[in-house]
Amino acid sequence: MRTDTPQYGDSWDTYWSATEEQQETSLWDAPAELASAVDLPRFAAHLDRDKVLIDLGCGNGTQTRYLAQHFGHVIGADVSPAAIKAATAADPDTSYMVLDLFDTPAVEALHERLGDANIYMRTVLHQILPEHRPAFARSLRTLLGTTGVLAFVELAPTAEQYLHDLVERHGPPPGLTRVLSTGVRPGSVDGPEALALLGSDAFTVLAEGDSLVHTTFTLPNGQRAQVPAYFMALRHTTGQPSAPRAGD
Length: 248
What we know:
Elements: H1 8-21, H2 36-43, E1 53-56, H3 62-67, E2 74-78, H4 81-90, E3 95-98, H5 104-114, E4 118-122, H6 133-144, E5 149-155, H7 159-170, H8 174-181, H9 191-198, E6 203-218, E7 224-236
Parallel strand pairs: 1-2, 1-4, 2-3, 4-5
Antiparallel strand pairs: 5-7, 6-7
Helix pairs in contact: 1-4, 5-6
């Protein structure tokens, strides 16, 4: 890997190592019934189930384990070796791998091995600095090829104000403090920006809508903090089924 490759792996490995050593939870590590189980009905009908489904940014594998109950071949992938170690320990029967999307040769080799893949991704893109997002998107396109589906959940533009108000009222959630202490600086990316990164002229929106990201931070009323988010499912336009002709 080139020395000028963005080193997100170092930051996230520090985070996941500390999280596991201290037996704490990730801010975003909501149970599957509040996360991937909500998302799955939104995109499942669009998937070719013969393809591999990659849970990209899988962390400790909470969502991967749920997805593996519904698809024949699921791979949890994360840039952090510590996260993959924790995921594998919790679920040795599912495939996990360390994958850095800025390692172009590794991404190309994975696509060569798997062919076009489907990708599920929760709250990953906003963690990538704007100047690094085009390279990240290129790797997504490589893995998807022309027939894979990308289904993702991202924080909505209103999430920043929500989190600001949350900190003002209740103090900073410990999970968020640990993320920031590693040097990761979360931003925001809305739906049109995400589509433009992939190529709005090359990708078609299959499904979209408002969503919520349930956190592990408990409010004084006993409920979880829920961050505004949105969902999108995309596929390369050349991989779309042909539209019916008039009269068919």
